Amino acid sequence: MEQFPDLLKFRFNDSAYEYRVESFKAFLRAPPKKHKESPTTSDYVSISDEDLDRLLSQDATETVVAGNYESDISVIDGTVTAVSHDDVYFGDMRSAMETFPDIFRDLVYKEIGNDRMESLINAAWENGFFIKVPDSSRGLNISIVERSDRHSLSLKSVILVGDDSSVDITHSCYSNASPGSVHGKTVYLFIGKRSKVRFNYLQEKSKSITDLTYVKSFLSDYAEFKIFHVNRGSEKVVFANESIMRGEGSDFRTFGVSFTDGRQEMDIRDSSFQIGKNAYADVQVRGAVSGESKTMHRGNIDIEEQSILSNGFYDSKILLLSEQGYANSKPALIIKNNNTKSKHGSAISSIDEDQILYLRSRGIDSDMAKSMITEGFLGYSMERSGNDMLMKKVHDFAQAMMSDEKR
Q: Model-level pTM?
């Protein structure tokens, strides 16, 4: 890691060089955090310096098996392929920063990141996708497939949505990388005035990977952003979803589902930072824990002093399916004015035996009853997405988790 500034000069001497340097400085300034939870002290997903060194190494020797990816944009081992579109710009970051220098200088490069690993990815990214949606684009559907079997890879992607537009985006992430692999990415969405964006995210990587993902949305006046995220794979997961709600009347909704089994560890973070007046944030996350796995839900509802007449809500529920599994939920409210409405809630419990008994009285065996209860508990969030792929994944994951737990 000490040689990384020299690596920046050698490998990334491009128009993003100064941004990379400032991002790396932000990483160095931010010390590793120790999270103390009563009555125990635990680092729920421990990312070591060795992990971060691998993230910086950008080993490009491993390549993914070629496949047919039916999507508008595919990101395969850092190589971006995009279909042509008459109005919407699809491309890769390295080309886009030369094509749209003013956008990168005035918008993208001003966002360094407020988490040390986020800043590190913003320093080390190799490539990523870039989408620019013009004003008044209605009813757009965009599909993105990301796949890498490389040992290490950092990606940065940007989505710009103009004013008065509506976009539905599905972003699916896969990998069969070797044990010890580390993948990191940031996805930044800049959403124009009165625009509506729905972002469907799936992470289904092999359980040999450390996956670090930061999704950050920046909302203008009366912009609406809904994110539906499902995390199932990877050995270690840090998934951070944060909305910077600068616009008046901006609206941020989150519906998240996580599955862990075996010895998986997940740290799921969903937060709002409300600056504009009359902003609304609603975060609802659900998790299922089995085996000896660990799940942590963190969430901040931060309503700034000037964000009067705003609302912020956070709700976390985690279902424990094994005695060895571990779960914790840590919501927080940071309210800086007295003209708002805000609340948080969390619950961790096992399956209700009365529910199992009821289903068994209807001729359903115990294993099927547990699977149905788990799917119902988690599927409710994804039903709101209207996305068939996500709903099917939740169904399949719930059944697979109960099968694994039975074994």
A: 0.93
